[in-house]
Specification:
single chain, 54% helix, mainly alpha, 4 helices
């Protein structure tokens, strides 16, 4: 993928001048930018943990039961989580 991007950089300038190493490094940088994942927000984690802390510890309203789709009221026995 980087080789193709470097080739197209050289092609755009008509294969005149430039430096193959610079073409490669700039292409590599462009490709790497495509795969950069944003860092998760620390605030988002705190909001999630706060919501979890406010959940009842057991029963059909517990976070784990809701995430797993378990309902004690529907006659399903509690699952071990």
């Amino acid at each position: 993928m980087i080789a193709e991007a470097a080739y197209f950089r050289a092609e755009r300038r008509g294969f005149q001048g430039g430096c193959p190493m610079e073409d490669w490094l700039e292409a590599e940088h462009e490709i790497n930018q495509l795969y950069v994942q944003p860092e998760p927000s620390p605030r988002g984690a705190l909001v999630f943990l706060d919501a979890v802390a406010k959940q009842p510890a057991e029963g059909s309203n517990s976070l784990s039961a809701r995430l797993l789709g378990i309902s004690h009221e529907a006659g399903n026995p509690p699952a071990e989580v």
